[in-house]
Design goal:
heterotrimer; A mainly alpha; B alpha/beta; C mainly alpha; A: mainly alpha; Serine Threonine Protein Phosphatase 5, Tetratricopeptide repeat; 3 domains; 14 helices; B: four-stranded antiparallel beta sheet; 11 helices; 33% helix; 29% strand
């Protein structure tokens, strides 16, 4: 009788643990797609956010940064991504997909540039990252000297979303907070050149970058190369090469290298 | 002020301020007390009379509203006075995370007792109070009685001239209480002064030389135990047996109380004892006992506090 | 001096109450973070470990400061051990200061061990010890000591619940101080200025002791600023402690 009682308790506990594990796994997939994504929008901005973190700002910034990375990663449109597969089955992304397609990108009149933009703009592979910029803005608010999030949003995410205004705003914010960092005018130059077709601004930005103490030599090489006006595709390749060299981050390097290869096929 | 007195108190009063609209409480009003060195003084009173308040004032745990206290001629706040004093509080607390040995050692340090002497006294005291077997056990595993003994040991670690004890026998079993009474008397023989409060009157009666009775913050009476108890000539209780069949015919006075088997008891004044014994013989009775009554402390106490 | 005896006893109390187990928790968490965080931060795990490590050091230290600091005084009174201690020829300020010093010693040990764990993790990840973290760690310790002094201060005259609450409020307002100042400047309403000024002078500006971000990013940990912040923290702690001593000395037990 005693043994039965003990066995009963054991079975009940095991059953409960299985139920807990099962429900948790189910909620994880569902939860991360729908709810987690929206939560950063409800976080306060700027100084209020800084005040709320009360002395643990850098840790909160890092936590938000990691959240941004996870958010971005889970939104990859790829049949290997279980989050995407689940969402597609449930039609969770339908609304966002529509909105993104409707928005499109500002097409330039210049046919060459338009072509380049088509190569660069991988909207078809990602782009469901509606809330990435609000997340990155908050990371920047909390830790203005943490450079990589600016670059991530200003260059890497831009390749996928084509959201020029947001990318530029983020980089300008970083530039304001870190006036001595050569990276910002360098990447802002990229945006001016590639996405806005504004050569004059590009030169101005690159000059500022070069003037800074620790600016690497390939930026100067780039500047010289662009000034020679070799043709938009050549210049694009040149810029992409320096972009690849400017970052240590493997994902960014890979992404840019892929783009460069595609571009070289066209040349 | 006399240096022969172990404790001298003049005009001591304590008013506790009422909190948030509550009235002030006068715990002690204008207490005067002298306790000679080498005496055992019992401070007795009902609950809330002011015993603990007085003791806390003596030991500087609370501060007087008015009045002065001197211990062996010095202000009680002076280091010299405090070094000569040992104190055992009511329901004492001891650090649970220390062993008995460590606790005594710590208290010894607070008295700046040198290390070698401290060790010697510590071991001796643990033995004296009967908890040497638990010296290395954590205090949190001690019983209430063991804690009380340890607390007594700490009161003696500095070999004080004056011992102040607040309800010292409260947590002890009968054996413990006997040991304690013996210890007090031994300490008295060593010339120490002992001031203790109690509401166990029989204990006070057994060991105290002097008694102070306090009620509602006022000292009702103070003086030698003998004096207090012999305030009126005591009666004598006589018990005897009469043949049962004879009792109805004798018409004994009312103060003779009869019981089963012909037993009779009566209390008579000292001067009437002889006459009563004669009567018993005349009635053919046989004497069982003659017990001289003495006035108990309890009777004095209840009388003084008006009950 | 009795301060030494009291502080050693307090130190022994905290050690025997196994407070230092929190260091184990810290060490395990750091190791876990080190393993997991690489991918999540896109290669910035060193920064993350340092940020989280410093923040955890601060947070654990603060929790110990508040809860143990308050419990120390409360237990002394409720456990009735204060009657034995305060009746000894020990000035009351020795008792309070001894308790403070004992807890400060425990917290110092806590921080040193945590720092070693953090440096070890950093050593494994970037093959070097980042000495820039040391000024930040020192100021974290000073901040914790300020909170300890407030914990002792409040517990010397209020209940443990209120004391915990007030101490935590001091911590929160201390970190919001700069924010409040900026906010109030936006509103020229005189009333608020006065209120702000009162709060600003009573409550320590704990943000001045927060250089975690600067330390991790190796930005201008200016020696002058460090020493000024250090002196500010020490003076504040001493001031609150002195007030606590005064209250404690006059207290009826």
């Amino acid at each position: 009788m005693k043994f039965l009682k003990k066995a009963g308790v054991g079975i009940a506990c095991a059953g409960l643990m299985l139920a807990i594990h099962g429900s948790q796994s189910a909620m994880d997939t569902r939860h991360s797609i729908r709810f987690v994504d929206l939560s950063p929008v409800f976080l306060p901005k700027g100084r209020v956010l800084k005040a709320c973190t009360m002395g643990y700002r850098s840790a909160v910034a890092d936590a938000l940064w990691m959240k941004s990375v996870l958010y971005y990663g889970r939104r990859v449109i790829d049949d290997d991504n279980p989050y995407y597969v689940y969402a597609e089955k449930k039609g969770t992304y339908a609304g966002e997909m529509e909105a993104v397609q409707k928005r499109g990108t500002a097409e330039t009149a210049d046919p060459v540039r338009r072509e380049l933009q088509h190569i660069l703009n991988k909207q078809s592979s990602r782009g469901l990252v509606t809330y990435i910029y609000p997340l990155l803005q908050r990371v920047a608010d909390l830790d203005p000297q943490f450079l990589f999030p600016y670059i991530f949003g200003g260059v890497y995410v831009l390749l996928d979303t084509g959201d020029i205004n947001e990318a530029e705003a983020l980089l300008l914010k970083g530039y304001k907070a870190n006036p001595g960092a050569w990276q910002f005018p360098f990447y802002l130059g990229w945006i001016s050149w590639m996405y806005r077709g504004d050569r004059v601004s590009t030169y101005r930005f690159l000059q500022r970058a070069i003037a800074m103490d620790d600016c690497p030599s390939y930026v100067k090489t780039l500047y010289t190369g662009l000034s020679r006006e070799l043709g938009k595709k050549q210049e694009a390749a040149l810029y992409l090469e320096s972009l690849i060299e400017s970052t240590d981050n493997m994902e960014m390097k890979e992404q840019l290298a892929e783009t460069l290869e595609q571009l070289r096929k066209e040349l | 002020m006399n240096a022969e007195y172990a404790i001298e108190v003049r005009g001591l009063s304590k008013i506790f301020k009422g909190e948030l609209g509550q009235k002030d409480v006068t715990a002690l009003s204008s207490l005067d007390l002298n306790i000679e060195a080498g005496q055992v003084f019992a401070f007795i009173g009902p609950n809330g009379a002011g015993k603990t308040t007085t003791i806390k004032l003596l030991t500087r745990l609370i501060f007087p509203t008015t009045g002065r206290i001197r211990i062996f001629g010095r202000e009680n706040s002076s280091p010299e006075a405090m070094r000569k004093t040992g104190y055992l509080p009511e329901q004492p607390g001891v650090y649970g995370y220390l062993t008995g040995k460590e606790f005594l050692d710590y208290i010894g340090r607070l008295f700046h007792v040198p290390a070698a002497l401290r060790k010697k006294r510590r071991d001796m005291l643990l033995d004296t109070v009967g908890i040497a077997y638990a010296a290395d056990t954590l205090v949190r595993n001690y019983s209430r009685g063991m804690v009380q003994r340890l607390a007594l040991a700490q009161a003696l670690i500095n070999d004080p001239q004056l011992l102040i004890l607040d309800e010292p026998m409260a947590n002890l079993d009968p054996v413990g209480r006997k040991d304690f009474r013996d210890l007090i008397l031994r300490l008295k023989d060593e010339g120490k002064t002992i001031f203790f409060s109690s509401h166990i009157l029989s204990d006070a009666e057994t060991i105290a030389d002097q008694v102070g009775i306090i009620n509602r913050g006022e000292l009702m009476s103070s003086g030698g135990m003998e004096n207090l108890l012999s305030l009126q000539s005591p009666e004598v209780e006589i018990a005897f047996i009469l043949p049962e069949d004879k009792i109805p015919g004798l018409s004994l006075p009312e103060n003779f109380s009869t019981g089963a088997g012909g037993r009779v008891r009566v209390s008579v004044e000292q001067n009437n004892v002889k006459e009563t014994l004669g009567n018993i013989e005349a009635w053919g009775g046989s004497l069982v006992s003659i017990v001289p009554g003495s006035r108990t402390l309890e009777a004095v106490f209840l009388d003084k506090i008006g009950r | 001096m009795a301060v030494g005896a009291v502080s050693l006893n307090t130190f022994r109390e905290t050690i025997r109450n196994r407070v230092l187990v929190n260091i184990l928790v810290f060490a395990v968490a750091i190791i876990f973070l080190g393993l997991a965080v690489g991918d999540w931060s896109m290669g910035h795990q060193v920064k993350v470990i340092k940020d989280f490590g410093l923040s955890a050091m601060s947070l654990f230290g603060l929790l110990i400061a508040v809860f143990i600091g308050i419990r120390m005084v409360v237990e002394e009174i409720e456990g009735r051990t204060i009657y034995i201690i305060a009746s000894k020829p020990v000035p009351r300020w020795h008792i309070v200061t001894g308790k403070f010093a004992g807890l400060a010693l425990t917290l110092l040990l806590n921080i040193v061990l945590m720092s070693i764990a953090l440096f070890a993790a950093g050593f494994v990840m970037e093959s070097g010890i980042d000495l820039h973290l040391i000024p930040a760690i020192i100021l974290i310790y000073i901040e914790i000591l300020i909170i300890v002094s407030f914990a002792l201060f409040f517990s010397s005259f209020t209940s443990p619940t209120l004391a915990s609450l007030f101490t935590i409020v001091i911590f929160i307002v201390g970190h919001l101080s700069t924010f409040l100042r900026d906010y109030v400047e936006l509103y020229p309403d005189k009333g608020l200025h006065w209120l702000y000024r009162i709060i600003y002078y009573i409550v320590p500006d704990l943000e001045k002791l927060n250089i975690k971000m600067a330390a991790v990013e190796h930005i201008g940990t200016n020696a002058g600023m460090f020493w000024t912040a250090f002196a500010y923290g020490i003076c504040y702690m001493l001031l609150i402690h002195i007030i606590t001593v005064v209250i404690f000395s006059k207290k009826d037990f």
